[in-house]
Amino acid sequence: MMKSKLFIGALTFVLIVGGLVGCSSKPSEKETSNESTGTPTITQSAEDTTDAVQETEKDLLTQIQERGSLFIGTEGTYAPYTYHDETGDLVGYDVEVATAIAEKLGVKAEFVESNWDSLIAGLDAERYDVVFNQVTITDERLEKYDFSTPYTISRAALITGKDNTDITSFDDLSGKKAAQSLTSNYGALAEQYGAEIVSADGSFSKAIELVSTGRADATINDQVSFYDFLKQQPDAPVQLVATLDDASKNAALIRKGNETLVEAINKAFDELTQDGTITKISEKYFGADVTK
């Protein structure tokens, strides 16, 4: 009987000590890679909570400056705005504008490529700090996001053959043939002005071909797209004869709640506009200033 009591007491002592030892063993702090951003994610112990709160309280601009990089979401497949050249380098109008902005902020431009369908979702998921990809400012987007100063302004452009003298304004389209996509906004606009629609199969180049060969009298299309076409084919027998006052404005897209970053980017835009940098980039890709 005495031996049984001693055995039970010893066993109880071992279990208590073993339990204490087990409770004191905490997993060590681990650093894992966030697949979306490539930035480290820290699993914090209780004593790190204060540091985490302080980091969270830093605004995005401060985080960017301390990091030394501005993460920029872009497609990389949308020439001449953001695409890869024959050497594989990421180039384009938006790429150069974004790089110039980053330099003004005193940081390096780091581009994160994504297709258009998931580009804005990537901003929501904080994969990058800002999107430079010809994002049009709309009322719907303004409810959820902030925009920078617009760096591309485009209007509906009326394009005719080089030798045309009959069409000098949109009102002159009445009774004329306009090469348009049958379901496009520009097609509907041409019909509003009384034009007969000639199908261009949804292609800008097809519309230009129909006009230049005389099978259509004119086409309404995007002004910036026309500048890009003319840059590539300066001898094409077409001309821009008029534009509408209403314009679409494209700018950098930024998550709401980052006012200091928006202000810093806009300040950089102002400086780059004043010194002519943005105009030079625009003329390089379009042969015209698309910022006005």
Which helices and strands appear, and what pairs or packs with what?
Elements: H1 2-23, E1 31-33, E2 40-42, H2 49-57, H3 60-67, E3 69-74, E4 83-84, E5 90-91, H4 93-105, E6 108-113, H5 116-124, E7 130-136, H6 139-142, E8 145-147, E9 152-161, E10 177-180, H7 185-192, E11 196-199, H8 204-212, E12 218-222, H9 223-232, E13 238-255, H10 259-274, H11 277-286
Parallel strand pairs: 3-6, 3-7, 10-11
Antiparallel strand pairs: 1-2, 4-5, 7-13, 8-13, 9-12, 9-13
Helix pairs in contact: 4-10, 4-11
Architecture overview:
- The chain has eleven helices and 13 strands.
- The chain folds into two domains: 58-153 and 248-286, Periplasmic binding protein-like II (D-Maltodextrin-Binding Protein, domain 2); 154-247, 3-Layer(aba) Sandwich (D-Maltodextrin-Binding Protein, domain 2), CATH 3.40.190.
- Helix 7 (185-192) links the parallel strand 10 (177-180) and strand 11 (196-199).
- The longest helix has 22 residues, at 2-23.
- By secondary structure, the protein is an alpha/beta fold.
- The strands form four sheets. Strands 3, 6, 7, 8, 9, 12 and 13 form a seven-stranded mixed sheet that branches. A two-stranded antiparallel sheet has the order 1-2.
